Amino acid sequence: MLAKRIIPCLDVRDGKVVKGVQFRNHEIIGDIVPLAERYAQAGADELVFYDITASSDKRVVDKSWVSRIAQVIDIPFCVAGGIKSVEDAGRILEMGADKISINSPALTNPDLINQLHDVYGQQCVVIGIDSFYNEQNDRYEVYKFTGDESRTQQTRWQTVEWIKEVQSRGAGEIVLNCMNQDGVRQGYDVRQLTAVREACQIPLIASGGAGAIEHFRAVFEQADVDGALAASVFHKGIIDMQELKEYLSAAGIPMRKAHLRNKD
Amino acid sequence: MSQRIVIVNTGCANISSVRFALERLGVTVEVSDQDSVIKAADKVFLPGVGTASAAMQSIHTKKLGATLQSLTQPVLGVCLGMQMMVQSSAESKMGDIDCLGLMPGQVKRLQANGQRLPHMGWNTVTSTGDNPLFAGIADHTYFYFVHSFAVPVYEDTLASCEYGQPFSAAIGHNNFYGVQFHPERSGDAGAQLLTNFVNL
């Protein structure tokens, strides 16, 4: 039976893992390779690396860390951030990433999704969507450039419509980041994820809001997502990966059990 | 004596991942699209991701079809590399396309019975009988899959997986082996399988 996936997300700047408060004052929390290795060994099913290195100052962003991760990591990983063209994506994939995730560039140029699908295949095309619940009109609205407060803007898309659009263009997976819940650790936005699940025929990954192990159970059981992404609960040691997976497994949610290798 | 392990340079994106996985096992590997290098190898890997039509096109452009068909040493196809080993694939805009025909079999679209495609993530694999490729790997071991097309279960199936329907997770015929999952991304289970193949 296909297991549900637990996916730690690491923010990377200049090849280091960082954590920040509202996109400012980033503090280096460690070297990327040992941290990635630690998560893989702890039982993560997949990793996402979100490169927040500013590319606005026109310098070429050093992505050699992708290759260093690919050398040591034996689980799949996805690279997000700063991928604006088929060439950008190709470089990341050739360095050993399994998937690339694009967000704002897909909104600016939706045809990029078709191009990535045709050149590299559906399996590596992940679309990140930043979705905000607007209480005033009771709608879920797609935002772009959310990595930089001064540039963040609402798009013309409602979330379900954008999900349908990216699927028709060849996306292989969607990571739905629910902005209202992001960073507050009050639980995933189960209501929103449930609402979009029916429209989403490809794998759907929940992002934003994980704060306790019960939140993972709720999002798998109620919203039927394929994976759950989280950052701070793992980085801060609030949730232990193995404990989480044992809890979910006991609750009847299919979790991968590690193969015990004969070391001979 | 150290073996000559060659990864066929199909021009696909997961070549680095397969090379790194083998290097983690401590073996040296060479990536090549040269007929003489591939033929002289002790073990050959045929990786692939993307679509069958694009990958077959790349093989034809590099004139590697006859090279691969002539091989008598153990060859392991991974994911799309495995799909290219059989006779034909339905993964094309123009109907079925010819594959390498290294072994019988056809690639069909997964009939997932309402489950979502692509089939992406960790799923359990069970071998159909004793096979050195799965030595030390228990039934229901998890491997990492990403695909929408598959070879149905048939006489050359070495291991099966289920997603809406049973399909071939691994196939084998004479010296040719193929796995639908990604051993290079399947943790310790994948490392065990790669070790088993290298030791064949």
From TrEMBL, chain A:
It is an enzyme of class 4 (lyase). GO terms for biological process: L-histidine biosynthetic process. GO terms for molecular function: imidazoleglycerol-phosphate synthase activity; lyase activity. Pathway: Amino-acid biosynthesis; L-histidine biosynthesis; L-histidine from 5-phospho-alpha-D-ribose 1-diphosphate: step 5/9. One of its GO terms (cellular component) is cytoplasm. Its EC number is 4.3.2.10. Keywords: Amino-acid biosynthesis, Cytoplasm, Histidine biosynthesis, Lyase. It catalyses: 5-[(5-phospho-1-deoxy-D-ribulos-1-ylimino)methylamino]-1-(5-phospho-beta-D-ribosyl)imidazole-4-carboxamide + L-glutamine = D-erythro-1-(imidazol-4-yl)glycerol 3-phosphate + 5-amino-1-(5-phospho-beta-D-ribosyl)imidazole-4-carboxamide + L-glutamate + H(+). It is found in: Cytoplasm. Gene3D superfamilies: Aldolase class I. InterPro entries: Aldolase_TIM (IPR013785), His_biosynth (IPR006062), HisF (IPR004651), IGPS_HisA/HisF (IPR050064), RibuloseP-bd_barrel (IPR011060). The active site is at residues 11, 130. Belongs to the HisA/HisF family. IGPS catalyzes the conversion of PRFAR and glutamine to IGP, AICAR and glutamate. The HisF subunit catalyzes the cyclization activity that produces IGP and AICAR from PRFAR using the ammonia provided by the HisH subunit. Heterodimer of HisH and HisF. This is Imidazole glycerol phosphate synthase subunit HisF. The gene is hisF.
